[in-house]
């Protein structure tokens, strides 16, 4: 019986939920919903008359592919006692392999799921550790001579390809500590009429623990939706908050509106957000000086003639500096567009000079050997790391003050590469430790002036990767990781707080950058050849390139 039921469950989770025969044609998870109504990705089947316990269980699990009408079909498999109280939004288990099922003679069942990842009620995606198992318990009851489930966990179970279709990634937005930039955190929800409500609730409940030290929310703690619904009328998302929101200062109300605007405007049927408090409409001005950092960003390369802008020549803020680069062995560089500083990695370590006249003024910033990464962040602090175990992370201000950024977790480990997020509140890091290289993201704690003080404990974003060699931010929520072994080289595009997909790469890849989207990728090989990503392949752009950097 155990083997037979397992086969039935496999069939139910992969084939019994039929595709829709009406509604908009949809190809995959990267396409947005065309309306704010329910989006019918799958049409699961209702229970049939005389269905066995195994068929009821498999049908119920298969119906988790249909979130439309609050999982109405899945509820048909439940007894009247739990039909309305069952909460499928509490958790999603993404399974790694076929579940093991045991139905006993006592009208109970256990389903053992090999968990690839878990999504909680707030849409937080957490990858499961290797061999992570979860046992689900079910009870059966006869109602009107038909088997139904009288006990079922508050969750759904999906295979990865189905999850990719039914669920979409959305960002909820917080504000950095200086209240200058919006900071995203990715959450996952099905595209239903309730998506706006779930996004608003997730925002009101705040940032995840790993990100919290780097951000604030202008929405007063304890604020809730006065009614648990965000409705959309003529493109306007109506958000009614509880009286707790009244304690926000005037400037914070503008930031609060900016957070809700950025979060809810991702919905395709929302063009505007209107906020009320206890049904009293609020006239809230737009936030001043708050920026959402999006591409395209300009790209510079170091070639035979010195520095040159590749992607947007009209934004050039530097001179080629051919004579300086001919006399200096440079392996990497970074540009600060506003202050005009140019930092380079040379045989002497990290030095900086003026980008408008390279070589006229030269200052030593970091003399340590084995520099692994340098980068100016959004606030133009220069970060530098080395490959030595336990070595400090150093940041330098535009005035030339260098200091250590605390990272207690780095003890006994080294930084193989580091990249600062577009808005400057997060850092992606390759951490070289005993036996493995960890691909992780950490929050950047800054003081009120923007000075970086600490990198918090990192979280894995690519749990299983062979040999990551470099990384960079593709956009505000995606990190590209070059993964290179003796047998292959590929590039992993990892959503921070989500899934990872693979695109092709080239042998000998040393670095990869994006000017703002996945369609604007540039790759540099050991041989000094620069490639750009077009369609699904790499095209050569130029040769004799030593390094490249955004600015």
Can you walk me through this structure?
Pfam families: Germane (PF10646), Gmad1 (PF10647), LpqB_N (PF25976). Residues 196-286 form the GerMN domain. InterPro entries: GerMN, LpqB_C, LpqB_N. The protein is globular. It folds into three domains: 2-166, no CATH class; 168-281, GMP Synthetase, Chain A, domain 3 (2-Layer Sandwich); 299-550, 6 Propeller (Neuraminidase). Strand 22 (382-386) and strand 23 form a beta hairpin. The longest helix has 15 residues, at 250-264. Helix 1 (2-14) packs parallel to helix 2 (53-62) and helix 5 (195-205) packs across helix 6 (250-264). Residues 1-12 and 14-36 have low confidence and may be disordered. Strands 1, 2, 3, 4, 5, 6 and 7 form a seven-stranded mixed beta sheet that branches. Strands 25, 26, 27, 28 and 29 form a five-stranded antiparallel beta sheet that branches. A four-stranded mixed beta sheet has the order 11-12-13-14. The chain has seven helices and 38 strands. The protein is mainly beta and 551 residues long.
């Amino acid at each position: 019986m155990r083997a037979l039921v397992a086969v039935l469950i496999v069939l139910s989770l992969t084939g019994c939920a039929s595709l829709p025969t009406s509604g908009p044609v949809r190809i995959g998870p990267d396409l947005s919903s065309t309306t704010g109504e329910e989006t019918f990705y799958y049409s699961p089947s209702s229970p049939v008359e005389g269905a066995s316990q195994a068929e009821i269980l498999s049908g119920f699990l298969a119906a988790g592919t249909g979130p439309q009408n609050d999982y109405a079909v899945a509820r048909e498999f439940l007894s009247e006692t739990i039909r309305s109280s069952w909460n499928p939004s509490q958790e999603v288990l993404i399974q790694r392999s076929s579940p093991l099922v045991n139905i006993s003679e006592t009208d109970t069942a256990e389903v053992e799921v090999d968990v690839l990842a878990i999504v909680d009620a707030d849409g937080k995606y957490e990858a499961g550790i290797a061999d992570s198992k979860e046992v689900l318990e079910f009870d059966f009851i006869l109602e009107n001579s038909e088997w139904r489930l009288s006990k079922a966990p508050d969750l759904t179970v999906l295979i990865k390809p189905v999850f990719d279709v039914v669920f979409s990634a959305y960002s909820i937005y917080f504000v950095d500590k200086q209240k200058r930039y919006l900071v995203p955190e990715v959450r996952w929800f099905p595209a239903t009429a309730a998506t706006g409500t779930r996004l608003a609730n997730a925002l009101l409940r705040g940032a995840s623990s790993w990100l919290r030290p780097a951000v604030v929310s202008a929405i007063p703690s304890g604020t809730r939706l006065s009614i648990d619904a965000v409705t959309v009328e003529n493109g306007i998302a109506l958000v009614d908050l509880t009286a707790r929101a009244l304690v926000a200062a005037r400037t914070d109300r503008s930031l609060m509106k900016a957070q809700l605007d950025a979060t809810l405007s991702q919905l395709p049927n929302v063009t505007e957000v209107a906020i009320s408090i206890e049904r009293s409409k609020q006239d809230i001005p737009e936030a001043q000086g708050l920026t959402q950092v999006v591409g395209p960003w300009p790209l510079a390369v170091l070639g035979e003639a010195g520095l040159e802008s590749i992607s947007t020549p009209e934004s050039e803020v530097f001179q080629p500096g051919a004579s300086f680069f001919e006399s200096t062995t440079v392996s990497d560089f970074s540009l600060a567009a506003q202050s005009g500083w140019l930092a380079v990695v040379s045989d002497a370590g990290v030095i900086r000079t003026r980008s408008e006249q390279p070589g006229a003024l030269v200052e030593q910033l970091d003399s340590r050997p084995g520099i692994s990464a340098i980068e100016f962040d959004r606030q133009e602090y220069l970060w530098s790391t080395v490959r030595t175990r336990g070595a400090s992370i150093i940041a330098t201000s535009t005035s030339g003050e260098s200091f250590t950024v605390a990272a207690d977790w780095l003890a006994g480990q080294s930084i193989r590469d580091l990249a600062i997020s577009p808005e400057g509140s997060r850092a992606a890091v390759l951490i070289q430790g005993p036996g493995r290289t960890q691909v992780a993201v950490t929050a950047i704690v800054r003081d009120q002036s923007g000075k970086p003080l600490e990198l918090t404990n990192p979280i894995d974003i690519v749990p299983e990767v062979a040999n990551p060699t470099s990384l960079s931010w593709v956009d505000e929520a995606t990190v590209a990781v070059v993964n290179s072994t003796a047998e292959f080289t590929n590039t992993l595009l990892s959503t921070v707080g989500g899934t990872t997909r693979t695109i092709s790469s080239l042998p000998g890849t040393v670095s990869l950058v994006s000017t703002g989207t996945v369609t604007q990728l540039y790759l540099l090989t050991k041989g000094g050849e620069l490639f750009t990503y077009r369609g699904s392949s790499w095209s050569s752009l130029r040769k004799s390139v030593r390094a490249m950097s955004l600015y």
